[in-house]
Amino acid sequence: MQVVHYPNPVLRGGGKPVESFGKELETLAADMLATMYESSGVGLAAPQVGLAMNLLVLNPTGETTDRTDELVLVNPRILERKKIEYGQEGCLSFPGIYAEVERHKQIVVAYQDVTGKAIERKLGDFLARIVQHELDHLNGVLFVDRLSPADRLRVRTSLERLEERWRAGA
Questions:
Q1: Which of 101, 127, 142, 154 has the least CB density, counted as fewest CB within 10 Å?
Q2: Where do the domains of the chain lie?
Q3: Phi and psi (nearest 5°) for 36?
């Protein structure tokens, strides 16, 4: 499993609801987590590995040795949002690019686990930021879409390099 890089059109496609639960989904989530860890990330959405599914995985520590807060969210949706803050973000699909992004500090998210069990959970701070970032991928929204005009200008050269690499098939 490989992380898809910008500007691959699959990143704009978003995901579709997951309807089948069980061993196959568990294996897929485990593979996504392994890919996330190998890429030194803290979150990964299915479209980032070329899959049009509403599935995301995360671990705010990014460490395989600390899986306490590891989560798999299937068909997630945000029910509540509170307080806004800016924070530094990067994205595995935009290697080497980091910028300040506005997100909600607290959210309530409803999702299913890999068995299909419905869960509702209140999240805050970094965990809330990760979920919002990955949920954007499920809706075809990219990290760069949320940048200020100044930050867009600042990262323009890096984006152009990614576009050139993609066109060259690298």
A1: 154
A2: 9-167
A3: -60, -50
